[in-house]
Amino acid sequence: MHVPNILTAVRFLLAPLFVFVFFSSNDNYLRLSAYVFVLAGITDVLDGYIARRFNLITKWGQAMDPLADKIMQLTVLICLTINRLIPIWVIIIVGIKEALMIIGGVVLYTRRNHVVIPARNYGKISTILFYMAVLFISFGIPFGIHLLFLAILVTLYAFTCYFKVGMSEMKKYKASQ
């Protein structure tokens, strides 16, 4: 297994670590869990950079990297919702969107000749905004919730773009049959 894939696998492990730290009895739980979240963000940036820089891009990495991101993001949103730091409708919107993305990704991969739609810039921008919003909220920086709302809008835009790309891939596959 290459380094980028190992970093992606580590990110899968950071989600339960985030939950453990977030719900610990430590008075600094928000700050400490934010550090776990930052570590997840660093592994996300590094795995992509290393994969592209050293031509270590794999189908597994293209499929698992966004899944690791989604699991981490949903984990964080669930924790923040449970502690009433963000409204519940945020997790509902993002949860539905992510479930649809996962289902669409699985369908394309399993039923359409192993098609994987790699991350696009709009998806990356959405992720960056989300990470910033969570950090702002965790550290009590003003406008964190506003930044989260912006991240949700960009996420919904990214979803429509990914949906169009997915439909285009489906049409290409059907035309080739």
TrEMBL record:
Pathway: Phospholipid metabolism; phosphatidylglycerol biosynthesis; phosphatidylglycerol from CDP-diacylglycerol: step 1/2. It holds the Pfam family CDP-OH_P_transf. Gene3D superfamilies: 1.20.120.1760. The keyword Membrane applies. This protein catalyzes the committed step to the synthesis of the acidic phospholipids. It is a multi-pass membrane protein. One of its GO terms (cellular component) is membrane. It comes from the Bacteria. One of its GO terms (molecular function) is CDP-diacylglycerol-glycerol-3-phosphate 3-phosphatidyltransferase activity. It is found in: Membrane. The keyword Membrane applies. Its EC number is 2.7.8.5. One of its GO terms (biological process) is phosphatidylglycerol biosynthetic process. The chain crosses the membrane at residues 6-25, 32-51, 86-110, 122-141, 147-165. Keywords: Lipid biosynthesis, Lipid metabolism, Membrane, Phospholipid biosynthesis, Phospholipid metabolism, Transferase, Transmembrane, Transmembrane helix. It is an enzyme of class 2 (transferase). This is CDP-diacylglycerol--glycerol-3-phosphate 3-phosphatidyltransferase. Its main location: membrane. Belongs to the CDP-alcohol phosphatidyltransferase class-I family. It catalyses: a CDP-1,2-diacyl-sn-glycerol + sn-glycerol 3-phosphate = a 1,2-diacyl-sn-glycero-3-phospho-(1'-sn-glycero-3'-phosphate) + CMP + H(+).
